[in-house]
Amino acid sequence: MPAVSKGDGMRGLAVFISDIRNCKSKEAEIKRINKELANIRSKFKGDKALDGYSKKKYVCKLLFIFLLGHDIDFGHMEAVNLLSSNKYTEKQIGYLFISVLVNSNSELIRLINNAIKNDLSSRNPTFMCLALHCIANVGSREMAEAFASEIPRILVAGDTMDSVKQSAALCLLRLYKTSPDLVLMGEWTSRVVHLLNDQHMGVVTAAISLITCLSQKNPDEFKTCVSLAVSRLSRIVSSASTDLQDYTYYFVPAPWLSCKLLRLLQCYPPPEDGAVKGRLVECLETILNKAQEPPKSKKVQHSNAKNAILFEAISLIIHYDSEPNLLVRACNQLGQFLQHRETNLRYLALESMCTLASSEFSHEAVKTHIETVINALKTERDVSVRQRAADLLYAMCDRSNAKQIVAEMLSYLETADYSIREEMVLKVAILAEKYAVDYSWYVDTILNLIRIAGDYVSEEVWYRVIQIVINRDDVQGYAAKTVFEALQAPACHENMVKVGGYILGEFGNLIAGDPRSRYVPFCLMFTLLFFFSLVPCLLTCSQKLRPQSRRCCAAIARSATQMLNCSSELRVKEFHLQRFWSPFSQATVLEEMPPFPERESSILAKLKKKKGPGAVSVTELEDSKRESGELNGAGERGPDPSVMAASNASTPSPSADLLGIRSAVPVSAPASSGSLLVDVFSEAGPTASSGAVNDDGFLRFVCKNNGVLFENQLLQIGIKSEYRQNLGRMYLFYGNKTSVQFASFTTTVILDNCLQLNVQSKPVEPLVEGGAQIQQVLNIECLTDFSDAPLLNIKFRYGGALQNLTLKLPVTINKFFQPTEMASQDFFQRWKQLSQPQQEAQKIFKANHSMDTEVIKAKLLGLGMALLDNVDPNPENYVCAGVIQTKSQQVGCLLRLEPNAQAQMYRLTLRCSKDSVSKRLCELLAQQF
Question: Which residues are involved in binding a 1,2-diacyl-sn-glycero-3-phospho-(1D-myo-inositol-3,4,5-trisphosphate) (predicted)?
Answer without folding.
Answer: 11-12, 43, 53, 57-61
